[in-house]
Structure formats: C-alpha cells, structure tokens
C-alpha cells in the first residue's frame, strides 16, 4: 500500500510539472486542442434551449472526465512499467 501511495505522489508531481511542459511542446496535442475548440465553437452556434444545453454539457463533461481518468490510469501504468523495467535491468546488470 505504501508503494502505491508513493507512486501516486510521484505521478501527481510529474503530471503537474513535466507532463504540462511536454504537452505545451507537443504539436499533435496542440492540434487536438485546436480541433476541440473548433468543435465547441460549432456547438455554440446551434440554437439550444437551457435543458438541451445542460444535456450537451453533461455529455461533454462526462466524456472529458472519462478521458482524464483514462490518461491518469495510462500514466500510472507507464510509471509502473518503467519501475519494473528498471528493476529487471538492475537484476541483469
């Protein structure tokens, strides 16, 4: 359990610093953000009543949340894999 907590602390710190810096430099990610903005602008042009806007907002928010949780899980797994590889290389060397 302690190892998992340490991994979470490390992951949180790296996502706040290194990941943010890497995303700023990642052209593919920046392009994706531009596409997202264009899509949101198109949705804003659709005449929706308040209830419809709430439904669309909930759907988009749920999708964003799911994507964020997927990214966190993938990042965590990547760290675990890196630690495992480092251990295995340590045993070989």
Keywords:
0% strand; mainly alpha
Describe this structure in words.
It is built from three helices and no strands. The protein is an all-alpha fold and 93 residues long. The mean pLDDT is 88. Helices cover 91% and strands 0% of the residues. The protein has one domain.
Helix/strand layout:
Layout: H1 2-25, H2 27-44, H3 50-92
Summarize the structure.
This protein has 3 helices and no strands. The chain is an all-alpha fold and 93 residues long.
Name the average pLDDT.
88
Helical percentage = over 70%
Helix/strand-derived category reads mainly alpha
**SSE pattern:** HHH
Total beta strands: 0
* Cα gyration radius (Å): 19 Å
Overall 3D shape: elongated
Extract low-pLDDT stretches: none
As for the number of domains, it is 1
β-strand amount: under 5%
Number of helices: 3
Q: Give the CA-CA distance, first to last residue.
A: 28 Å
| Largest sheet report | none
């Amino acid at each position: 359990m302690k190892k998992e907590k340490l991994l979470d602390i490390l992951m949180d710190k790296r996502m706040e610093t290194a990941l943010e810096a890497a995303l700023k430099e990642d052209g593919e990610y920046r392009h994706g953000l531009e596409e997202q903005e264009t899509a949101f602008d198109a949705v804003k042009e659709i005449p929706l009543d308040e209830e419809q806007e709430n439904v669309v907002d909930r759907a988009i928010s749920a999708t964003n949340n799911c994507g964020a949780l997927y990214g966190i899980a993938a990042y965590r797994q990547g760290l675990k894999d890196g630690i495992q590889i480092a251990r295995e290389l340590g045993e070989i060397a």
